[in-house]
Specification:
This protein has 21 helices and 11 strands. With 473 residues, the chain is an alpha/beta fold.
Length: 473
């Protein structure tokens, strides 16, 4: 199965939406931060434009990496995550603080690219498996039929073999057995189609998945070598199979997965995945400000500056060896983010600063933003709590005055203590609904109204007491 040059581009990692449509999609989940949304929408559209280019210019145009600056909880990570879902591109989120320069104990920065390649392989493999599901289901049904109606075995006649008429006997037996076998098979097939056997228990042979050698090379620069050794050992060792008693319904799922796996060409999947990772990969580098060094470097700061130097060639464009083949990072989009409370973007080494030409500052959230966050997004917090408690028959109703009061309290607590943005709403709502969540199964009145008085009763004292709010909220 030969992959054409444009296969990964047309199937995975391409988004035909205009920047305006991308922003509209992001608006469904993220409130405010219009400037950041515009920047990522333009970056995504520029990828689409670069694929339309022909000749040498296509390789010359590289993505413009983005640096997001803003305090925690304002939507930096969510923008990047939603962007990757939108484009169905290989996406990984890594924290810069997990990495150390070579020679120190910690993760090697090249593992970023190896993880991206793994993500791409999983995406392409799943896409290929989805495309062969129909064929896999047919083959799975044949395997279930084999369990119910095993193929007739040829009997061995030692005297026949001795006197040379074994073939005649075999042919005669085969003719006798074949019609019975076919009739039995079709009868079982009919019952399977009608769903009569779904709960029947059958014994099947399943392939035992090999357990990974977790932690053997983790957190060291030998991670890549560890993957290769593990694969090599896995290929040398015979596949273990074990017997399991399962229902026909479960057996169908197991067999469908196994057959789909056999129908896809993993070499083609790896080749396509590498192209997808190279052209469509998105890496979100969080906490980049924690490796920024201010002033003179000494002690741990030396390692942090070393991390920047190690990240530089990856962002700049280099080739990293993975178990699926070498991956070039020239066209991978890097989105870095940090609060930059203590350090400034100018504290990053100049070469790294130059690799993030698009700078976006995300604004701190105001009361109006908190009100919208509570109610507008498709995954709004209030909608989540209402859905959760509805499972126990509790109808949760929030008055507008209550929403306004919660938003105001979130602002007040963020100002009094650390500003953790929208994450403050999680702590406030959890405390507010603690009694309802606990008593939900026994509640007589299943209709619970949350108004301003209810909010003040549960939260006002905690917010007013500054010392207490630091511990509880």
């Amino acid at each position: 199965m030969e992959a054409s040059e444009n296969t990964p581009v047309t199937e995975i990692g391409t988004n035909e939406q205009t920047p305006r449509q991308i922003v509209e999609e992001l608006d469904k989940y993220i409130i405010g931060q219009d400037e950041a949304k515009r920047s990522v929408a333009i970056a995504l559209r520029n990828r689409w434009r670069s694929r339309k280019l022909e000749g040498p210019m296509r390789d010359e145009v590289i993505p413009k990496n983005i640096l997001m600056i803003g305090s925690t909880g304002v939507g930096k990570t969510e923008i990047a995550r939603r962007l990757a879902k939108l484009v169905k591109a290989p996406f990984i989120k890594v924290e810069a603080t997990k990495f150390t320069e070579v020679g120190y104990v910690g993760r090697d920065v090249e593992s970023i690219v190896r993880d991206l390649a793994e993500t791409a392989v999983r995406m392409v493999r799943q896409e290929r498996m989805d495309s062969v599901q129909e064929k896999a289901k047919e083959l799975a049904e044949e395997r279930i039929l084999d369990v119910f109606v095993p193929q007739p075995k040829k009997s061995q006649n030692p005297l026949g073999r001795l006197f040379g008429n074994a073939e005649e006997d075999d042919e005669k037996e085969e003719k006798d057995e074949k019609p019975k076998y076919q009739a039995g098979r079709e009868w079982v097939r009919k019952r399977l189609k009608n769903g009569e056997l779904e709960k029947e228990l059958i014994e099947i042979d399943v392939e035992e998945s090999s357990r990974p050698m977790v932690g053997m090379f983790a957190g060291s620069s030998l991670e890549g070598m560890g993957d290769n050794i593990q694969d090599m050992i896995g290929n040398l060792m015979p596949k273990n199979r074990k017997k399991r008693k399962v229902t026909v319904e479960q057996a169908r799922k197991i067999f469908t997965q196994e057959e789909a796996g056999k129908l896809i060409d993993m070499d083609e999947v790896a080749e396509t995945a590498i192209k997808v990772a190279e052209r469509s990969g998105i890496v979100f580098l969080d906490e980049i400000d924690k490796v920024a060094v201010k002033g003179n470097s000494n002690g741990a700061d030396v390692s942090r500056e070393g991390v920047q130097r190690d990240i530089l060639p990856i962002v700049e464009g280099s080739q990293v060896s993975t178990k699926y083949g070498p991956v070039k990072t020239d066209h991978v989009l890097f989105i870095a983010a940090g609060a930059f409370h203590i350090a400034k973007p100018s504290d990053l080494i100049p070469e790294l600063q130059g690799r993030f030409p698009i700078r976006v500052e995300l604004k701190s959230l105001r009361k109006e933003d908190f009100e919208r966050i509570l109610t507008e997004p498709q995954n709004a917090l209030i909608k989540q709590y209402q859905a959760m408690l509805a499972t126990e028959g509790v109808e949760l109703e929030f008055k507008e005055s209550a929403i306004s009061r919660i938003a105001q309290l979130a602002c007040d607590v963020n100002e009094q203590s650390e500003d953790i943005g929208a994450r403050r709403l999680h702590t406030l709502l959890e405390k507010l609904l603690e009694d309802v969540s606990f008593d939900a199964p026994e509640l007589q009145d299943k209709h619970v109204v949350i108004d301003e008085a209810y909010v003040d009763d549960r939260l006002h004292d905690i917010v007013q007491n500054h010392d207490l709010s630091q511990f509880i909220l």
